[in-house]
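Predict the 3D structure for this chain.
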Amino acid sequence: MMKLYWSPRSRSFSGLWLMEETGQPYERVLTDISTGAQRTPEFLAINPMGKVPALKDGDVSIAEASAICAYVADRYPEAKLAPPIGDPRRAKYLQWLFFGPSCIEPAIIQIFTKIEVPTSTAAWGSATQVFDVLDAALERGPFLLGDMFSAADITIGSGLNFAIRLFKMVPTRPSFDRYLDACSARPAFQRAEMIAAG
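Done. Predicted structure below.
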């Protein structure tokens, strides 16, 4: 059985949501980052970066939210959280899966800290560009791959929910509201919220 290491009010919400979407049994291991539990030697053996979420699957350890999404989606193909290899939608799925940590998270940090970074040197371009690109992609909706919900929606939906609805760091847009409504209407999202709330 997989073990998910998580902490409330963190990016590990994506791990909870992901595991709830699979419909598979899993063990939740509360790792309270407010007490430094992520810096113990035991946890650092699972994720040397000392961050949540992290996942153990037998002898396999994996960290980073998007990598966990990719691993679990491929591990449980019956959950239909990823287009199979050979499906033309898989390319966009992978692009959006990694758009969260490579573009959305840096854009949120840029907004939060008000750091000015030249768009020519910032790997994410600019916060405005990131959210304009996402806005355009979500116009077609309801999910990033149209009617198909995928693990990429867990990564992007978690990040947007965090930035817009929970911490109000990013202004919302009509496409974001529609998207977040579609994500939060999913029973697995609602179960994950109940778990995270304690």
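The chain has eight helices and four strands.
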